[in-house]
Amino acid sequence: MNVLGQQLVNGLFIGGMYSLFAVGYTLVFGVLDILNLAHAAVFTMGGLAALWLVQSAGLSIWAAFPLATLLAGVLGLLVNQVAFVPLRRRPDTYFSGLISSIAMAIIFEALAMQIFGAHNVRFPAGTVPVVIWRLGGITITLLQVEILATVVLLMVTLTQLLKRARIGKAIRAVAENQRAARLLGINVDGVIAFTFFLSSALGGAAGILFGLYFDSLSPDMGRPIELKGLAVIVLGGMGSVPGAILGGLAFGLSEVLTVAISGTSNLRDAVAFTMLFAIMLLRPSGILGKGRTREA
Amino acid sequence: MLLEFQVVSRNFGGVRALDEVSFRVEEGQIHGLIGPNGAGKTTLLNALSGLMPPSGGAVLLRGKPIQGLPPHRVAALGVARTFQNIRLFETMTCLENVLAGQHLVARRPLWPRLLMLPSHRREEALWREKAMAVLELVGLRERAEVPANSLSYGERRRLEIARALASEPRLLLLDEPVAGMRAESIAKVAEVARKLAAGGMTILLIEHNMNFVMGLCDRITVLNFGRTITTGLPKEVSCHPEVVEAYLGAEVCLA
Amino acid sequence: MDLITHLYAVYGSVLNFMGINALLALSLYVTLSSGLLSLGNAAFAGIGGYVAGILTTKLGAPYLVSLGAGTLAAGLAGMLLGLPVLRLRGVFLAMATLAFGEVVRIAALNLEITGGAMGLIGLPVKTNTWIIYLALAAAAYLVARMARSRLGWALTSIREDETAAAAMGVNLTLTKTIAFTLGAGLAGLAGALYAHLNFLITPGEFGFSVAVNLLMYNIVGGYRVWYGPLLGAALLTALPELLRALGVTAGPLRLGINGLILLLVILFLPKGLADLFHRRGDPATAPAQAAPAKG
After folding, report:
1. Where are the domains of chain C?
2. Model pTM score
3. What is the mean pLDDT of chain A?
4. Strand B202-206, strand B30-34: pairing
5. What ipTM score was computed for the predicted complex, to two decimals?
6. Which of A90, B140, B174, C123 to pair with A232, CA 20 to 30 A apart?
């Protein structure tokens, strides 16, 4: 029973990080109807930037975290400017945007390799103090608590921002109907750029937490999570923020439980992707999506 | 009679976009469909061409019900159409648009092509000639090699008509064929429509330009709020009290 | 002659990969030509590869029979997948096929008959450069000749405007299913050829990144004429070797140049490399021009 409980707790933490990553992904899709495939590379850059700030600049993780998150946001602006803005008026933006964002991802990965080498690196020991609690046979570390607190804090901030702040309302207006938003006097290009900033900052934050949690970072660490992130936003309903949060948790839990029950990591993704496939057949708009899945 | 709508209805949520619409279209005639914006004209055309099946009633083509058939089956029965918001194959040239429009009539089998038999060259030349003839008819022969997305607005409307004609239809549906056009272009479209009708084709068209409709159509049906107000000759329709009140205003009465 | 033998000894395997990748790119081209974005073609290649490989190793089937069976099995899988997913549009179709691809990969990873994570081992090496390029030439010929057939026009019409295509008589479901099936079959053939090239195949060789590569070949090469994907596949497969020959060794620089070239092609050659060669002739390949003028 405690083994299962432990797995549930682990799944919650991992799922929380997936949510954070996926929320950024889905935000851009919600606004632009475009997948930004550089998102995973920004995730990696966020993690590595935090590592550099801690290791080489000697900052504490508390200072490094917001700085690296900000930097990831700036990378998002760059991705928008280089990979998406020039394509906006082309008829095949959708296909070409996929590829231009992949090109950005490759360039980021090359940069990361140049700076950090191709091997795995880790945060110096003691970056986050090792504190362990045991609650009825379930182990929880300080790091895990901090991760979950960060995820919750960021999610609540984002939700409030979208709901109440002026810029949040503008984002929702642009997502709803770009032309109408423009007529209302909203600076659509600015809103799109800000969405990229926000999305990438969240992705970068997820990368830092990931690096801390798994105690390992590498230039290609974004690759596995890229596919999972896609799965999560589809599960939750493309473009839906609460959907991405729920989808992330569901994905994290299903992953951990599948391994626990089957006893082999080969099946780790089986349940999640089978579920994804089934959802695409039965309810393609996702769990919380309301969507134009069958129109252009 | 070629086409008959029998108490055709269509609901969108709680809104009744078409409310028991009934009228007939005679073979070889140009039949106008008029009414204020939102009267249900395009919805009726969509119900007929299978893009949006009616929720109730029947659409009879030569006496056979066709409501609920998918668009390609309706097209195969000899119904072709244009769209209010012009749907061309933008990156294709004018000629290619018309060649693509021959889908229902040109067989273009793959095997002779794979074996490079001479027959397919003959076939290709034949269909190309037919396509050029259609372009000639709408006055776009000289523009054959120009991509659709660099045509002028009036040319785009005419190209869409040409593409619809390429399938050699018996019934042609035109959704606002002269909207936003200059006078010369409008006259050209009217002339094309007359030529087609003289050749035995039936045309059902939606249009807001009253001079065009009144001058061209053999019969006219008026819709308002999804209902048929009246069907009749242009001068009957234009003086119908409900029409005058609901739509046209007294000064258009032709009688 | 000596020089050629020498070059082949050095670059033969790159040549083989170029051919296989070109065939895979062509398989995606067929689906893309009707506007459908499939991320499942890598998985179809996997199905073709595993079916052919299993027939060869477990049943001792002759090479050509295995190739044919792999092609057919993948085509059949494409048809079965196509029926439910082809009503989805754009990114949703991409996601459904992506999920399908992952399910196939995970199945190969866990089934006994596919050899699990270790892969299918002990495949006889039967495929050679000649066979690859013969298959590629045949497939390219088929696809090129198809362009102006009834099916080809229907596919292009759907890509350009689905509603208009349906209204002029194109059976959307049938046409898309044919495109999907044909694409899957070609991918299966490529997979079956690949299975007999290298002693073994593993599930990872047919994953998401391969599916994305195929899309890259098409976008970089241009997906509006049949030779676009071939150009894209040839360039991107040979690029690492070209860079090596220019003295850029493996590592970040080569990766970076790869990404940069990709970006530059997308930004400055919107119709792909094929546009450099192509003038007129095939349908729907006219250069896009300014928005229509009102008048």
Report:
1. 12-207
2. 0.88
3. 87
4. parallel
5. 0.93
6. A90
